[in-house]
Structure formats: structure tokens, C-alpha cells
Amino acid sequence: MLLDVIKERRSIRKYTDQKVSEDQIREILEAAFWAPTAVNRQEWRFAVVEDRETLKKLAEINPNAGMTAGAAFSVIVGYQEGVNDRFAQVDCGAAIQNMLLQAKSMGIGSVWCALMPGSENGVKTAELLGMPEDFRTVATVQFGYPAEERTVEDRYDENKVKFIR
Description:
Blueprint: H1 2-8, H2 22-33, E1 44-49, H3 52-61, E2 73-80, H4 85-105, E3 109-114, H5 120-129, E4 135-144
Antiparallel strand pairs: 1-2, 2-4, 3-4
């Protein structure tokens, strides 16, 4: 059941050395492309990094994403500047959520680390990867087989919901 996958997904920051296959990476990316977007524009762009040295450099650039160095791969999510930036950022978030859930359903762990558009770390990341000058980062998402377990707690809080009937 989808709700079970949603409830069980947790941010995984420690990974085993097991490689994620190219087919599995493509499945995770395919899930991203099925996310809803404003006016179905699909403005997102993705860079997939498997190279160990580049993963280490990404971890150095973004201290909040230090786990990148140990990930099997990382997906840098962004969009081309000049589109409707606010919608593109939200659309990228939907794509990221789809990737996280697809990975969880495959037994692959993941963690989403924001990399705000125009930030110094975002610009350095885009430069490292040779992305076009108008590429704006939104996040890095790290993936790999989990080397840690995270507990599942109930998060539903009726106090944060207002029903209007």
C-alpha cells in the first residue's frame, strides 16, 4: 500500500558499498518524470553523479550533504533560469518526493538536501558538474542501500488540520 511506503520512508544518511544498477537508477528517475508540474511544463533538469571522486567533491561543497561521499549516487535537481522560478522549484520538490518514494519501494535509502537556487553552494555544484550557466539548483538527493535503520513514528497531528465542512 502506498501509504505504508510513505510512512516507512526515512532520511538515510549511511549507505553500504553495494552498487545501485543502471536500471534501478532509471526507475528512480522515471518516477521523477511522473510528478505533477504547473501547466505540465516539466521544467526540471537532473544530473546523476556516480563517480566516487565527484561525490566526494559534492560533499565538500555542501557541508549539509556530507553523506554524499558515501552514497551510491546523487541526483542534483534543478531547472533552467528564466522559467517561472517559483513554480519550477515546487515542481522539482514533487519530482524529488517521487524519487524518494520509488527508492524506498525498491529497498534503496535516500536523503534530500536543499541546495537553494543562486546559493554559493548551488553555483559551485553546477560549475563542478559542468551544467549550463543558467542551471539553478534546488537540491541534491543521495541514494544507496541503507547501512542504518530509522524508526517510524506516527506523524499525523489533527491539531495542524482545520476542517471546513
